[in-house]
Amino acid sequence: MEPIQRESVPQVIAEQIIDLIASGELKLGERLPSQRDLAKQLGVGVSSLRESLQSLTAMGLIQMQAGRGTFVSDSFEGAARSFAAVAPLIGAQELGELLEARLHLDSAVAQMACRRATAADLQAVRSAFRAMEAAAASNDMQGLERADVAFHVGIAQAAHNDVMAQLISSLLSMISRQIQATPYSKEVIDQHREILEALEARDSERAAAAIAAVITTSANHLGLEGFSDVGSAPS
What we know:
This protein is mainly alpha-helical. It contains 12 helices and 2 strands; from the N terminus they run αααββααααααααα. The chain has helices at 9-22, 35-42, 46-58, 76-86, 89-92, 95-116, 119-137, 141-158, 162-174, 176-181, 186-200, 204-221; strands at 62-65, 69-72. The chain has a two-stranded antiparallel sheet. Helix 4 (76-86) packs across helix 9 (162-174), helix 6 (95-116) packs across helix 8 (141-158) and helix 6 (95-116) runs parallel beside helix 11. It is globular, with a radius of gyration of 18 Å.
């Protein structure tokens, strides 16, 4: 492993870990070195490494197990193919275009979830929303971010299309820094509640509109003026 330059730390950490797995140095199901040891090998801080590991977890490439460590996911190969298809967008696309892609993909997936979600799927999304509310009430911003990601990944899984779920996880990973920079106001929590209620009502148009409102609010907070003019969500 080679020391990493600061300007692209999270992305390069992820790429090096993926390379270790793809080359066979780390096997499916194998435990990764401790975060401290891995950070030392890569020449990065533990906090930067942890951010990258969280992104890889969201993409389904690794699994972080409390009290046991971090393991290569048994489904790594399928998740890696989806990551490879989307990864070139990281450097090639502007943030506004990534958010636009997320707007249309998330909206379509929410509509699919309205038709396909099981009771267990809806319970998972509902639990993620409750976690968002609890984290917001205690001003736990890291917990709030994790619950937000779990909420949207839960919707993607409720659509029962593995490819689209992995694409959404990849997009969320690519814009993780921007997600962290977005303030969580009462408006944002209320918008996520609207998404949940639309899913529970099986109202696909309402769900798509609610998703669009959340992403447009994020874009506005990030100073992307005119984002709402990119086009309406798919119907």
